[in-house]
Amino acid sequence: MGSFIQNEILGMAWLERLIGSLLTLCGLDTDSKIGGSVLFFIYDTIKIMLLLGVLILIISYIQSYFPPERSKKLLGRFNGLGARIIAALLGTVTPFCSCSSIPLFIGFTSAGLPLGVTFSFLISSPMVDLGSLVLLMSIFGWKVAVVYVVLGLVIAVAGGTLIEKLHLEDQVQEYIRNAKAIDIPQEELRFSDRLKYAWGEVLSTAKKVFPYVLIGVGIGAVIHNWIPEEWVITALGGDNPFGVIIATICGIPMYADIFGTIPIAEALLGKGALLGVVLSFMMGVTTLSLPSMIMLKKAVKAKLLGIFIAICTVGIIIVGYAFNALQFLLI
């Protein structure tokens, strides 16, 4: 039953067989490089967008119970480590990329929440949303997905704790520190209202991420069928001790979310890249993308931004090497 759920429901192996049969009927050899690339591109695009739609519908419905004002009140009830843990968990049901999380981070900070709490949220939100859990399960299996999410939450809580201990409140831009939070009463939505909101989020997010999915799947198709396996193994395999560091640094200049990076990660893993290297690349892209850091620079000063980048980078690299060491147990 577990294998059926993993392969046929989450992995949609039936869809790959169907598309492969249709391409064969059209006269395309799916065992060739061109045919294999076409099969990979069509299959992964449809699979990711189908999973994306279902996931966003569910997550957005849950998210309708946690609007910003209610989230502020929820976080305000906790203190210390407990508050940072709640903030990291709250990040799993909020926006899918760091650029979307930054406005919420600004709102939480201006509301007077401790800096460690808001940074735990900011780290967690793009790195370990519920969508990443299901999508990772569809590609790598439930063990990898669960460990990825747990370690991502550990990075978020540890990073927020360290930032709070350093007392860097003066490194937040003055316009945020001096802002006054406005308490807006939240009306209780009906089931139909929440469903309408969730469907709107499906359409909005799908339109936003679809170009990045196409780019990611396109890159994955090239890696999967055209890049020699020995190249990938040399650069990102077990014989290169710097593979995790290289993957993390390569991911930072990119702008994508979990949905755009998974097909690249899938192709790299299939070519012999180590698991920790692949996941470090994904974390680097989703958490430390250059556009996100430019946006965050408008909210915090250079010292705090540098510390945030350093904490995330070191955390991602540690997680990457941990996954490399545990790969034989997880796959």
From TrEMBL:
The keyword Transmembrane belongs to this UniProt entry's keyword annotation: yes
Localization (cell): Cell membrane
UniProt key word Transmembrane: yes
Major location (coarse): membrane
Designated name of the protein: Permease
Bilayer topology term: Multi-pass membrane protein
Family, similarity comment: Belongs to the UPF0718 family.
Lineage: Bacteria, Bacillati, Bacillota, Clostridia, Eubacteriales
TM segment ranges: 38-62, 102-123, 135-158, 209-227, 239-256, 268-290, 302-323
Organism: Ruminococcus difficilis
Pfam families: ArsP_1
UniProt entry keywords in alphabetical sequence: Cell membrane, Membrane, Transmembrane, Transmembrane helix
Cellular component GO terms, alphabetical: plasma membrane
